[in-house]
Design goal:
two-stranded antiparallel sheet; globular; transport; transmembrane; L-valine transmembrane transporter activity
Length: 303
């Protein structure tokens, strides 16, 4: 493969990993609540700003900055669940859980919280871009044979793989993960056998928002700037990846996010940067027409 195209593929995989971390949060929350969290992009933004505050206030090492972004995402996710989703779970009967009106109300609630969070960030930090101090930037070139990669790409790829591996361990080797999978499969059945649905939903929001927050700070460290609306475009791409993957399939969402990232990177060879964003929307239309259950959509597992 030509060196230039190989570099574009690697760039696409880095971007795709960011989409994947955000898409996992969408997928986890949709799995347990059967609703789309339209405020999930703001968890990405809040993680980035939490890391920036840690840098400016304390000058903390890079590892601490990422941990703070993870913690900030988790706290923001729990707060989001308490404000935007908890009030609509007062009724736990089957009719309420399957109510279309309830899902639409929750969707609008998350959208309203998303707008409020964005406005609050603009109020406290301003609408302009916030720059990351130069010593924290992850754009040092690292030669790998004929390729010239950056330290940020290694951080994004390596950290994403570690987080995805940790998530798989949590889902398949811990009681919390078993509860998440059980409630995703059958909320009422899980409640009747004694699982705490409320605590599991809180844990789901915390885990999904942690991944989003980590993605936000890594992108900020790589590109050198963050801003209040930075979560909009990546969250749209992540949502497309979730739909392509089958809504509740984590491996499907990850694979589709990587496909989106690589296709977008390669599309810049033939389209301008703005038009390359059409790749995700084209994939969404094709998926809805030819794969209405998602490319990796399948029946839910029995837990």
């Amino acid at each position: 493969m030509d060196t230039y195209y190989l570099m574009q593929v690697i760039n696409g995989l880095s971007v795709g990993m960011i989409y994947a971390l955000i898409a996992i949060g969408f997928t986890l929350i949709f799995g347990v609540l059967n609703v789309v969290n339209f405020a999930h992009g703001e968890m990405y933004t809040l993680g980035a700003f939490a890391g920036l505050v840690c840098i400016n206030a304390f000058g903390s090492p890079l590892a601490i900055v990422i941990l703070v972004a993870l913690a900030g995402g988790a706290i923001a996710g729990i707060g989001l669940e308490r404000i935007a989703f908890k009030p609509f779970r007062r009724f736990q009967d089957e009719a309420s859980l399957k109510s279309r009106a309830m899902r639409e109300a929750t969707l609008l609630s998350s959208l309203a919280v998303s707008i409020i969070i964005k406005e609050l960030i603009q109020h406290f930090f301003g609408a302009e871009m916030q720059t990351i101090p130069g010593q924290y930037l992850l754009n040092n070139p690292i030669p790998v044979g004929p390729l010239s990669l950056s330290s940020g790409q290694f951080l994004i790829l390596g950290s994403s793989i570690l987080m995805l591996g940790g998530l798989q361990y949590v889902l398949y080797h811990t009681r919390t993960g078993l509860s998440i999978r059980a409630i995703s499969n059958n909320p009422l059945g899980a409640k009747y056998v004694g699982l705490s649905v409320d605590k599991t939903i809180i844990a789901t929001f915390a885990v999904g928002s942690m991944l989003g927050g980590a993605a936000g700070i890594m992108v900020g460290l790589y590109y050198g700037a963050i801003f209040p609306s930075m979560g909009f475009a990546p969250s749209i791409k992540a949502f497309v990846a979730m739909v392509m993957g089958g809504l509740s399939s984590i491996p499907g969402a990850v694979i589709c996010a990587l496909i989106l990232g690589v296709c977008e990177a390669l599309a810049t060879n033939y389209l301008t940067q703005g038009w390359s964003d059409m790749v995700a929307y084209s994939f969404l239309i094709i998926t809805l027409i030819f794969f209405p259950q998602g490319i990796f959509g399948a029946r839910r597992e029995r837990v």
